[in-house]
Design goal:
Strand content: 25-35%
Catalytic activity: 1D-myo-inositol 2-(L-cysteinylamino)-2-deoxy-alpha-D-glucopyranoside + acetyl-CoA = mycothiol + CoA + H(+)
Number of domains: 2
Shape: globular
Helix content: 25-40%
Oligomer: single chain
Number of strands: 12
Family: Belongs to the acetyltransferase family. MshD subfamily.
Structural class: alpha+beta
Keywords: Acyltransferase, Repeat, Transferase
Protein name: Mycothiol acetyltransferase
Largest sheet: 12 strands, mixed
Organism: Nesterenkonia halotolerans
Radius of gyration: 21 Å
Order of helices and strands: EHHEEEHEHEEHHEEEHEHE
Length: 330
């Protein structure tokens, strides 16, 4: 296979292939290498965490029952080698959750029509307009090219997910939990079911977070970044009231991964206190900056994060066909 920094010549031919289910080992490795190159160039990962979880799960289980449908764009070289120039990954939903596309093109292969070729291939198969399925696409980062490609195919923005960042950690206030509430780290194998129930209750209206299963939880627990001590649970007696699951993106950069409070405990300021407790944990672990994702139209959460010192850093945009807004995420 060609090296990652090799620039295709104008005479090279691009061939698009489509696969369903678990990708073969060489394709899986090539896809992860492509994603890493693009993330380094764009300062944005091209795939969401759920897509990466599905890719890793498919690679480990080797099952054709995987919800993955992937279009690969190979640039054929004259030396009988080939370069993975781009890929479109679709994670199929289940009727309630739409099929979701994420697209990546190698930085030195852009402006060659590869993105359009991938969308064309997927539009005649898994993303066909007459499939009767709800369709969405994520564009990670504020890239004009993604907007132009979406407009070309008649897709319009339906959701904006902000990335916010905090760098003044020394000024963050200390968490103030009620005396009756205790905070401790997650205990794998002991807290799994209790957390799943609390998460489902806290995110009952969220089409992604609220639908996490035990398998989804365990898949995340197997990731290199998982740290049970950074998965903070708030208890009142034996009742789990809320949680703050932190994550380390990279050395020096922590993440407010997910904060949830069960409905019965809302209105007590636990969300703010749990957020601050997680920030404090990450700061003590040596991380000098904190980031988080939040829906732009979640005004209450955005207001809270701004009060804590977070500012908008970047944004991801979800697109949908202009005539298909039936199951927009909350």
């Amino acid at each position: 296979m060609s090296t990652a920094d090799e620039t295709p010549a104008d005479s090279d031919q691009t061939v698009v292939e489509l696969s369903s289910g678990a990708p073969a080992t060489d394709l899986h490795h090539a896809l992860l290498e492509l994603a890493a190159v693009a993330a380094e160039a764009d300062a944005n990962p091209p795939f969401s965490e759920q897509t990466l979880v599905e890719l890793h799960r498919a690679a480990e289980q080797g099952t054709q029952q995987s919800p993955l449908r992937i279009a690969y764009a190979w640039t054929e070289k004259s030396t009988d080698s080939r370069l993975l120039a781009g890929a479109g990954v679709v994670v199929e939903g289940d009727g309630e959750v739409p099929d979701v596309l994420e697209l990546v093109v190698r930085p030195n292969c852009r402006q060659r029509g590869i993105g359009a070729a991938l969308v064309d291939e997927l539009s005649t198969s898994v993303l066909a307009a007459d499939s009767g399925r709800s369709r969405r696409a994520w564009a990670h980062g504020e890239h004009d090219a993604a907007g132009r490609l979406a407009q070309r195919y008649g897709w319009t923005p339906v959701r904006e997910l902000w990335r916010m960042r905090l760098t003044t950690l020394d000024e963050a206030p200390a968490p103030e939990l009620p005396d009756s509430v205790t905070l401790r780290g997650f205990r794998p194998g002991e807290d799994d079911q209790a957390w799943l129930a609390a998460n489902a209750a806290a995110f009952v209206d969220h089409p992604e977070q609220g639908r996490l299963t035990l398998e989804d939880l365990h898949a995340r627990m197997e990731e290199d970044w998982f740290d049970p001590e950074g998965f903070l649970l708030a208890f009142e007696g034996d009742q789990l009231l809320g949680f703050h699951w932190t994550k380390v993106q990279e050395p020096g950069l922590g993440e407010v991964y997910v904060v949830g409070v069960v409905p019965a405990a809302q209105g007590r300021g636990l969300g703010r206190s749990l957020t601050l407790a997680g920030i404090e944990h990450l700061h003590r672990a040596g991380h000098e900056a904190i980031m988080l994702y939040v829906d732009a139209d979640n005004t209450a959460a955005v207001k809270l994060y701004k009060r804590l010192g977070f500012t908008k850093w970047d944004a991801d945009t979800m697109y949908a066909p202009a005539d298909d807004h039936s199951t927009e995420p909350a």
